[in-house]
Design brief:
about 1050 residues; alpha+beta; seven-stranded mixed β-sheet; four-stranded antiparallel β-sheet; 35 helices; disordered C terminus
């Protein structure tokens, strides 16, 4: 159907008239728009980088002198001011020492004992330590407030390889000398000086983090008591045959010149030929290559073709193996091949281990440099020839190749094979390359005489302790990995070729006449707690023999001394009072990645030597990663010092800290780039409490990734800074409560109801009671994230945004009796919440708690000693909860309507309710609804709300209003006809809609990107899903509002501009 030209002309005239009118209205409303913009969010600096200056006049160790909150610098939350002085007072007062009964026994309430996983003295604490320490402190403070005898015993670990490495780097960087240049004694003194320096810094950080440890019992893995424990453990286990001496294959780290355990080896998967940088080599080395060559059969013209990925080890070959069922080589079994470079005949043996289908089906056997070959060599009595020096060069057993570096020999051996016509070909070969976790050097399997511990029987006992339920592992998913590791466990190589560590208390007997080379005869080793005891043992074995003793120069694997930690810290091997009271301990809390390194060994040694399990619970917490999901590493520059988050640090100062470290220039450049990207404005001062709360909030209570591991923490400074804002909310609430209570307020002796409380009071008491129940249950289940979510919800939404705002209204009306009730409720709601929060935010809660009046008869010195809140049946009030939620939903919808547009005058609101009971309830609380509807709307501050009218379902719906549903039984109305500039509001709504649609599209694209989803943390992807839901809700709400605005406009304007269409089907016209 064609449109009449006259009609089109009429519409065009109307459209132009409407445009002219719109321009006039926009000009007229310019002032109002500016006012609205000013009342809404303004661009702000990303962070406040400097905290207000604060001078604390409290003498060291004394109770804090509290300044009046009206003082400059205390108007807003300032972590520098809030967190000063409290810890020194706590420590001096002995609040963290375990409280025993008069007869020095555990209190009737029971005990909670946790031995701190000792941080390495290698360097400063990082965010992983902050997370672990925070969770431990939350538990220690919680159980202390529950009345239990609590011991949290602190300490540090000497960290053998790590500390020796960093000290050697420092020595070379500052003096260009090695440890061998200065000798063992001098080097150990330098290492001890390093330890003292960093130990002090570590302890300072622990104090700044608020960790409530018993400093009087602090231990160090290399102090005298731990030295005695390590010696005792070694001697007992050697005497009963658990520890033995053997020349076996070890994982040799050429760069560090020491053996390392299987757990300290990383696997690098290669798809084929790959050039890699190796420490000590200027050029990159080829890996992932299969080299084919031939051995000549002795006494014939026949040749055997062999494939290997390590041609340099050919120099240590002492045999060739074939599968006994392989018809191709059956006739050669028992014969020999000639070594091409060394005067050596290699027997051809038959062994079931050989895979007929792999390579040529013929395997070269190098028993001294491969575990599988070692086993074949033992089965067939082959010769074991070590070709490697400790520094990675070839020794004299390599013949003419001696003194070459191992990977130089890789190429010279292949060249020599070509010269002799024995080289066949090279092929790409997918393989797994083993790298040292510490040095990133390629691990070199080699035979080395070492001290070993038998693990099978101990592992079975440790597995049974978990299987029987005597020890629980959380999350339960880690139990399966634990059992698998225990099933496949190998004997433990205890020896490390280091200087820094516990020297092995074993001595070699050197006969005065005709001594054998050191260590060459395993029967000549004796052990002793000191040399005197060792000599006595030697004399008992060899009476009337003349000898001297030389102590083994090696030290123990660090994990050996750490494995004794739960009971050596309590005085073992002496039967001390602490050992009797506190062993077994309650729980060990540590990152899941050292479950086998450390936790499993503590269980095995605890049962074997301590006589019982070392702890009853293992809690595996996440690993802290950076915002890009990378594990924190000094070489990446993404390691964050907790003190930098607490105090703040500029980008330039972050760069300066890198320069003071031991990074090589390339690593430093990479680290600097990351810092610029991650912290362009530096790190703002967040304070300890915000840091602690965020770390606890990150702990998901054992939630697993798709890979079955505990969800890791992807740290984001902005999240921590948001919790600093949360601290300010609590701080401001405290100021309000103190002001409202007044200086003469004395709380009742106990928190209880009088029966005269208003609905709002009954509601908030129910809410704090419910929160208390949730937090107690969650802490018992170690669900820290659930705790913080519940606490955050209560403080922010229930107490601050709701009851405190409502109390302002209640304190403006009624009389003294009602006011007293409101204050009593305000005190209880705040005091219980402070106490509930204390384990997570110790400083802010102590600061505010000390300012609060105490209940009659309460002489508690500190919130850290207060009784932890528990569920109170008297405060449980589901009726109050449901009724108040009706009132709350009405005024929240009213706020939403008022926030959606700028009114010319005082707004008029209506609420039509279909349910008679709800109608009566709303009318009874009309004053509260009116007051609370306008709270938080800045443009209302002068105008105020004209009125809120509660309508029954029989009454007519008001005209000229924006509407919004309130649940399923009510509708809220805001009169806008003649009160707003419709054109301006429509323009704003369209702009808001455009932004929401753009945001929705962006978030959806991210969630459809599988590569992005695979890289980001679950918290990030869930955040995007939350955004999608919020955008969709905004779009629905804005479209609805646009449709209502359009219906309120004059008809000719609507006809000129078209009709509103569904936002999900197109754009608004």
């Amino acid at each position: 159907m064609e449109t009449d030209p006259k009609e089109l002309k009429k519409k065009e005239k109307g459209r132009k008239k409407a445009e002219k009118q719109q321009k006039f209205e926009e000009k007229k409303a310019k002032q109002n728009v500016a006012t609205l913009s000013a009342s809404r969010e303004k661009p702000k600096a990303r962070f406040i980088m400097e905290a207000p200056r604060f001078v604390d006049t409290t003498p060291e160790g004394q109770k804090k002198i509290l300044l009046d909150l009206s003082n400059k610098g205390l108007e807003a939350y300032n972590p520098v001011a809030v967190e000063s002085s409290h810890y020194a007072w706590w420590e001096k007062m002995g609040f963290f020492r375990p409280q025993l009964t008069i007869d020095q026994k555990i209190k009737p309430e029971g005990s909670f004992v946790i031995i701190e996983p000792p941080p390495n003295v290698t360097g400063l604490l990082h965010m992983g330590h902050a997370l672990s320490g925070t969770l431990q402190d939350v538990m220690a403070r919680y159980y202390r407030m529950k009345g239990k005898t609590v011991l949290w015993l602190p300490g540090c670990d000497h960290a053998g390889i790590s500390t020796q490495t960093v000290v050697e780097k420092m020595l070379w960087r500052t003096e260009e000398r090695t440890r061998h240049d200065i000798g063992r004694e001098k080097f150990l003194q330098i290492a001890m000086d390093w330890k003292e320096s960093y130990h002090a810094k570590i302890n300072a950080t622990k104090r700044r983090m608020g960790f409530s440890v018993d400093w009087g019992r602090e231990a160090f893995t290399m102090d005298e008591d731990r030295r005695k424990a390590v010696s005792e453990a070694f001697i007992r286990l050697y005497d009963d045959g658990t520890i033995y001496r053997a020349n076996r294959i070890v994982n040799w780290d050429v760069q560090l010149r020491t053996a390392v355990s299987n757990l300290e080896v990383e696997n690098l998967e290669l798809t084929g030929r790959t050039k890699l940088s190796v420490p000590g080599y200027e050029k990159k080395i080829d890996f992932g290559v299969m080299t084919y060559f031939q051995y000549e059969v002795d006494g014939s013209d026949e040749k055997l073709e062999i494939a290997t990925t390590r041609p340099e080890t050919l120099l240590g070959d002492t045999g060739v193996a074939v599968n006994p069922t392989d018809d191709r080589y059956r006739h050669l079994i028992g014969r020999k091949v000639r070594h091409p470079f060394i005067d050596r005949l290699l027997p051809i043996v038959a062994d079931d281990h050989v895979d007929r289908e792999f390579g040529t089906g013929v395997v070269k056997v190098t028993p001294a440099h491969d575990q599988n070959d070692f086993n074949i060599g033992r089965r067939h009595n082959l010769e074991f020839i070590n070709i490697l020096n400790d520094d990675g060069t070839l020794n004299t057993n390599a013949g003419s190749f001696a003194d070459q570096k191992r990977y130089e020999a890789r190429y010279t051996v292949v060249a020599a094979l070509k010269d002799r016509g024995l080289f066949v070909k090279e092929e790409d070969n997918p393989m797994v390359l083993k790298l040292s976790e510490r040095s990133k050097d390629v691990i070199e399997p080699r035979m080395k005489p070492q001290w070993w511990m038998k693990m099978r029987e101990m592992a079975d006992d440790a597995a049974e302790a978990v299987r029987s339920g005597r020890i629980s592992i959380f999350p339960a998913s880690e139990e399966n990995k634990y059992f698998l590791w225990m099933k496949d466990i190998d004997d433990w190589c205890l020896s490390r070729q280091l200087w820094w560590g516990h020297r092995v208390p074993a001595y070699y007997i050197l006969w005065t006449e005709d001594p054998s080379p050191f260590g060459s005869d395993d029967s000549l080793w004796v052990t002793g707690r000191d040399e005197t005891e060792a000599r006595q043992r030697a004399e008992a074995r060899f009476p009337n023999k003349s000898f001297i003793l030389e102590q083994d120069p090696d030290v123990f694997d660090t994990w050996f001394s750490s494995g004794l930690w739960p009971f050596s810290t309590l005085g073992w091997p002496q039967q001390t009072h602490d050992l009797g009271n506190f062993y077994p301990t309650s729980v060990v809390m540590t990152a899941w990645d050292i479950l086998f390194f450390w936790v499993a060994r503590m269980i095995m040694l605890g049962i074997k030597l301590g006589g019982d399990i070392p702890f009853r619970e293992v809690y595996c917490h996440p690993i802290v990663r950076d915002s890009e999901r990378r594990k924190m590493s000094k070489s990446l520059g993404n390691v964050i010092d907790p003190l930098d988050v607490i105090h703040g640090i500029s980008l330039n100062d972050l760069h300066d800290k890198l320069e003071q470290g031991n990074l090589d220039p390339k690593e430093q450049q990479r680290a600097t780039r990351y810092q610029k990207s991650a912290f362009p404005d530096g790190i703002p001062p967040c304070g300890t409490d915000a840091l602690r709360f965020s770390l606890a909030a990150y702990s998901t209570g054992g939630k697993l990734t798709d890979y079955g591991t505990v969800t890791d923490v992807n740290l984001d400074i902005e999240v921590i800074y948001d919790y600093r804002k949360f601290c300010n909310k609590i701080y401001q609430a405290g100021k309000y409560v103190l002001l409202s209570l007044g200086p003469n307020f004395v709380p009742n002796a106990i928190a209880s109801k009088t029966g005269t409380e208003s609905l709002a009071e009954r509601w908030i008491l129910h809410k704090i009671n419910h929160t208390t129940k949730t937090v107690n249950e969650a802490l018992e289940k170690r669900e820290f994230g659930r705790c913080t979510a519940s606490i955050h919800q209560y403080w922010l939404h229930d107490l601050c945004d709701t009851y405190i705002e409502h109390s302002k209204y209640l304190l403006r009306k009624d009389g003294p009796r009602e006011h007293r009730s409101v204050k009593d409720t305000l005190y209880t709601a705040f005091d219980v919440a402070l106490t509930l929060l204390h384990p997570f935010m110790p400083f802010l809660t102590e600061e505010l708690w000390q300012r609060m009046p105490r209940r009659q008869g309460d002489a508690t010195l500190s919130v850290s000693l207060a009784s932890y809140p528990t569920f109170d049946e008297n405060f449980h009030d589901l009726t109050a909860e449901s009724e108040y939620e009706i009132i709350r939903s009405i005024y929240k919808v009213n706020r939403s309507l008022l926030a959606s547009c700028l009114m010319n005058g005082a707004p008029q609101l209506y609420c039509q309710i279909s349910d008679d009971a709800d109608l009566a309830l709303a009318r009874h609380h009309l004053g509260s609804i009116k007051w609370l509807s306008g709270r938080g709307i800045k443009w209302l501050s002068e105008k105020g709300i004209k009125d809120v009218e509660i309508l029954s379902k029989e009454q007519a719906k008001p005209a000229g209003c924006l509407t919004r549903t309130v649940g399923s039984k009510a509708v809220a109305f805001l009169l806008v006809q003649g009160q707003v500039d419709l054109n301006v509001e429509i323009k704003k709504a369209r702009s808001k809609l455009d932004k929401a649609e753009a945001g929705l599209e962006e978030s959806r694209k991210l969630l459809e990107n599988q590569e992005w989803l695979s890289k980001v943390a679950e918290k990030v992807s869930n955040g995007e899903r939350t955004k999608v839901a919020a955008y969709e809700a905004d779009i629905r709400e804005t479209v609805d509002m646009l449709q209502q605005f359009e219906m309120l406009r004059p008809t000719e304007w609507r006809e000129a501009e078209g009709k509103v269409t569904d936002a999900f089907g197109g754009h608004i016209s």
